Structure formats: structure tokens, C-alpha cells
Backbone:
């Protein structure tokens, strides 16, 4: 900044307290609060573990209780993977909660994603599991239990997120409406 005499005031000091306002470089400011952006799609996606349990050529399937957009649909037993939990740990916990049985999780057979029309986005980790016993006691989240050969399963009665995996096991396609 120049004074009346044409000489720079406070040479080398950026014109005193006005220096930061007169410089061409950006000033440091306090961060402004921002509106949080939507989380990436992967962060919104609900991760679930699904148990693939065989007994004499039949798969264990559970039926959801009535009510809600997916009520009375058949599915693989399992549920949500909690924060900090592995799918293997989640499926052991879920089988104990849903069916009152101890289980061992083995290898991951597939990982699939599905986006439901109501906005639910899921990533399903299908795990081969073994049960410690075949005496199953359905919990609150299970309306019915059945053992079915894949070819006997009507995909129209199964959660949409499980259908592709079941088709690979030999389930029949859903009947046309």
C-alpha cells in the first residue's frame, strides 16, 4: 500500500493489518459448516450374511413374519452384519438368535447386491454353514422353517435378493404373473 508520498507503507510487511486483505493469495478462514453430502452408495448399502445350510440334498429356508414389504417371503437364514463384525461372526450370531442353534461358518460362496424398489440396498454374503444340531427353535424374526431341494423352491416366494443365488443352485424360475 502506498502512502501520500508514493512510498510503500510498512515495506515487506504486506501493508500492516490491511496486508492480508490486499494480497492476491487466499486468506485462511475458519472452516464453514457444510451440509453433509449423501454417503457413497456402498456406505448406504446394508451388508447382510446369509447361511447356506444343506442337509440330505435340501437347503434350510426361513420365512419372514407377516407385515412390511417383504413379509411372508422365504429367505436364507441370516441378517445384518453389525459394525465391526465379520460376515462369519454375524452369521453365527444370527443363527443363534433366529433359530436357537450353534453353527460354524465356513467359506464365502458368493457376494451379491440387490436394490429393492422401496430403496433398500443390500449386499448379501452367502456363507456355507454347518449346524451343531438339527433341532431348531424359531425366534421372533422367523415365521416358519423348511428344508427344500432347490428344484422345489418357487422363486416367486423368495426374497428378490436371494433369487439369483438360488437359481445357480437349481431353483425354478418365478412363474410369470
Residues:
Amino acid at each position: 500500500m502506498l502512502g501520500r508520498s508514493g512510498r510503500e507503507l510498512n515495506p515487506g510487511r504486506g501493508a500492516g493489518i490491511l496486508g492480508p486483505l490486499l494480497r492476491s493469495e487466499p486468506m485462511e478462514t475458519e472452516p464453514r459448516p457444510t451440509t453433509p453430502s449423501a454417503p457413497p452408495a456402498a456406505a448406504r448399502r446394508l451388508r447382510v450374511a446369509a447361511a447356506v445350510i444343506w442337509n440330505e440334498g435340501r437347503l434350510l429356508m426361513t420365512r419372514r413374519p407377516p407385515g412390511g414389504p417383504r413379509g411372508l417371503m422365504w429367505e436364507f437364514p441370516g441378517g445384518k452384519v453389525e459394525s465391526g463384525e465379520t460376515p462369519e461372526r454375524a452369521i453365527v450370531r444370527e443363527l443363534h438368535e433366529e433359530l436357537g442353534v450353534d453353527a460354524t461358518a465356513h467359506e464365502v460362496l458368493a457376494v451379491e447386491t440387490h436394490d429393492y424398489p422401496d430403496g433398500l440396498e443390500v449386499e448379501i454374503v452367502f456363507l456355507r454353514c454347518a449346524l451343531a444340531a438339527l433341532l431348531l427353535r424359531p425366534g421372533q424374526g422367523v415365521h416358519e422353517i423348511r428344508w427344500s431341494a432347490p428344484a422345489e423352491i418357487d422363486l416367486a416366494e423368495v426374497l428378490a435378493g436371494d433369487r439369483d443365488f438360488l437359481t445357480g443352485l437349481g431353483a425354478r424360475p418365478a412363474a410369470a404373473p
Remarks:
- The chain has one domain: 41-168.
- The two ends are 80 Å apart (CA to CA).
